[in-house]
Amino acid sequence: MVHFSLVDSLLILLYFAAVVFVGFRAARRQRNETDDFLLAGRTLTLPMFVATLVSTWYGGILGVGEFSYRFGISNWVVFGVPYYLFALVFALFLAKKVRATHHVTIPDKLEASYDRRTALLGGVLTFVLVTPAAYVLMLGVLVQLIFGIDLTTSLVLATIITVCYLYWGGFRSDVWANAFEFVMMFLGFALIIPFAYIKFGGLDFIQSNVPTLHLSWHGGNSWQFITVWFFIALWTLVDPAFHQRCYAAKDGATAQRGILISILFWFCFDFMTSMAGLYARAALPTLEDPAFSYPLLAEITLPSVAKGLFYIGMLATIMSTLSSLMFISASTIGRDIVGRLGHGSSIMGSEQRVNRWTKIGLVLSALFSILLSLIIPSVVKIWYTIGTAIIPGLLVPLMASYFEPLKISSRFAFWAMLLGCVVSTSSLVYGQLNITNGVPAYWLGVEPMYPGLLISLMTWAIGRISYRMRNPT
Questions:
Q1: What angle do CA 72, 78, 428 make, to 5 degrees?
Q2: Average pLDDT over the chain, rounded to whole?
C-alpha cells in the first residue's frame, strides 16, 4: 500500500495538467503540412533532439525496477550496455545516412530501395514493433496505484491524457512534451538516491543486504539469457523513434551528435535506476511483486513533496515513450499503410488525407495497445514477444538498404523480411504451446529469435549472390 499527502496528490495532478498544457501550447505552432505534422518541419535543434530521444528511449521504468530488484547490477548489462553499443553504431554509421534520405518513415526507405510490396510489409511490422502496449500497461498500473481505481479505467484515462494533444499538434507537441518530461524524469530519480543514502547508508548497507549475485555482472543469469537481450537490443537499429528523430533533425551532424550525447544521459540515468533497485532489494527483501520496487522504496524513503516528485519522475519516464510510440504507430497507419494502399504506386494522397488518417490511427493504436496490455499483463513479456517476432524480419533488409555493398533485389528483400518474421514467430508460438516445468520448449532448445535471424541472413546471402551475378561490375 502507498499513501500520498494532499500536496503529493496535487503535484501529480499538476504534472498531468502541465504535460497537456505544453502539448497543446506546442500545437499552436503546428502548420497543416504533412512534413510539419509528422516531423515538426525537420527543425529539431541539438537540445530538443537529445531531450526527446533520451526520454523516448527510456520508458520501461517499472520493468527496469523489477529486473534490478531480481538481478542487481546485471540490469545495467542487460538493459544498458547493449543499447549503448547499438546506439553508438547507429550514430557512427547510420544517423547521417538516415537524415540525408529526406524520408519520413522507415517504409519510405524500404520503398525507395526495394518496392511498394516490401514497404507495405515493413509498415505492418513497424506498426507491431512500436505498439506501446507495455507502456500503456505500466502507466495504467502506476495510475491505479496512485489513485486506487481499477486497472481498465486507469489504462483508458492514462492513455487519453498522454495522447490527446497529439491529435492536434502531431510530432511538434510530442517533442515539447518530451522535453518537459526529460527534466522531470531526471529530477525524480536524482531525489531518491540521496534520501536512500541518508536513511540506510551507502555501499556497505547494500553489500550486507543483497544476495552476492546481485553485485555480479550476470546476476545469476545464464550466458544465453543475457546474449538474447543483446540481440533484442538490435531493436535500436530498426527502431522507428531513432529514425524519426534523425529525419526530423535540422541536419545529419545534429542527429549524430545528439545520439552520442544521449548515450551519456542514458548512462547516468541507468546508474540512478540501478542504485535505486539495489536499495529496494536491500531495504525490502520480501516483495511479492518486484515491479513495485521503486514505488515501495519511495514509500519508506521519501518525505512528502519529494515522494510526489519521484512519482512524477516515473510517470514522465513512461509517458514520454508512450506518446512517441503512439504517434509513430498512428503515422504508420496513416502514411505507410493507408497511404500506400489507397494510391497505387504513390505513397501520398493529399496532405489532409494523410493527417486525417494519422489522427484516426491514434485512436486505433490506443485501442489496440489497451487491448494487448490486458491480454499480456507483463511488461517484460510484451517486450520479449514483440522484439523476438519482429526484429528478425526488419533488421537485415533495412540495414542492407543503407549500404551499397549489402544491396539485394526487392524480391529477396521481401522474402528475407517475411521469412525472418514468420520463422521467429512460429518458433515463439511453438515454445509457448509446449511448456515444460514452466520453461517454453523452443525448437532445438534455441531462442526463437535466432532461427528467424538465420533464415533472414540466408535469404539475404542468396539474394546478394544473385544480385552480384546480375550486376558483375
A1: 120
A2: 91
